[in-house]
Amino acid sequence: MRLHIRHETRYSYEAPVSDSIQYIRLTPRNTPQQRIHDWHLQSPGDTSQMVDGFGNLVTVMTLDKAVNEIVLTAEGIVDLTGKPLTKDDSPFPPAVFLRQTQLTEADNALKALAVQYSANKRGLIRLMKHLREHVEFMPGATTVTHTASEAFKLKAGVCQDHTHMFLACCRHIGVPARYVSGYIHSSNAAHVATHAWAEAWIGQNWQTFDVVNTLNVAESHIKLAVGLDYRDAAPVRGVRAGGGMEQMETRAWVTNPAGGQ
């Protein structure tokens, strides 16, 4: 399936920003599951390219002039091949993804939930469904600083929270699992196109676990970055001097050129 992606991110500031360095993970890699035919990233500053420790493509943007807003636009065409995840494609051995982080550390409640499920594909699918049924998808209920345990206590969150909870449980029962950021295509025009999901190492293969959509396959997913949690795979992270209060707006569209939506 061929998909067209356009992603716009706008940062507005109450006062001019004099200096800014941003690490942008908005460029997908070629993998057996996705082939990049065309991709462009527009930004207002000077840019250089690097690959981070997880193998993600990173654009480093530096801006040394005063601005009141920063606009980033990523756009391109990606073919999804439909091939399943199989081999280990990480620079690190899977065991690295057993490490908990501040965002995924499991409290007693999550630990008690995790041990109810077996460390195999069937068990993790059941865990995924449990989390989706008991934690409501509610935009605005959490922020990017909320931990898995906090979102589980609230019983509400968004895709990154569901993913963090799933990672916390997997790692507690000895299953390596990693955070994935990217896009998802849906025929529902109201569906949020930016997305996060998990991949767990079972046997000798990575397996997809999209908790929000209770999917065990990634047939409509475009992968941007992976890491231990959101902070490793965030589309944009950086530092700035000045600017005061910041307001961010982001919009993304994933469409099928042949089929409209």
Question: Nutshell version of this structure?
Answer:
With 261 residues, the protein is α+β, with helices and mostly antiparallel strands.
What does this structure look like?
With 261 residues, the protein is of the alpha+beta class. The protein has two domains: 2-82 and 235-255, Sandwich (Immunoglobulin-like), CATH 2.60.40; 94-232, C8orf32 fold, CATH 3.10.620. The protein is 18% helix and 42% strand. The protein has five helices and 13 strands. It has helices at residues 108-114, 121-134, 148-154, 159-172, 230-233; strands at residues 2-24, 34-42, 46-51, 57-63, 67-80, 136-137, 156-157, 177-184, 194-202, 205-209, 221-227, 236-242, 246-255. Strands 1, 2, 3, 4, 5, 12 and 13 form a seven-stranded antiparallel β-sheet that branches. A four-stranded antiparallel β-sheet has the order 10-9-8-11. Strand 6 (136-137), helix 3 and strand 7 (156-157) form a beta-alpha-beta unit. Helix 1 (108-114) packs across helix 4 (159-172), helix 2 crosses helix 4 and helix 3 crosses helix 4. The longest helix has 14 residues, at 121-134. The chain is globular, with a radius of gyration of 18 Å. The two termini are 12 Å apart.
Strand-helix topology:
Elements: E1 2-24, E2 34-42, E3 46-51, E4 57-63, E5 67-80, H1 108-114, H2 121-134, E6 136-137, H3 148-154, E7 156-157, H4 159-172, E8 177-184, E9 194-202, E10 205-209, E11 221-227, H5 230-233, E12 236-242, E13 246-255
Parallel strand pairs: 6-7
Antiparallel strand pairs: 1-4, 1-5, 1-12, 1-13, 2-5, 3-4, 8-9, 8-11, 9-10
Helix pairs in contact: 1-4, 2-4, 3-4
Organism: Marinobacter halophilus
Pfam families: Bact_transglu_N (PF08379), Transglut_core (PF01841)
Protein name: Transglutaminase family protein
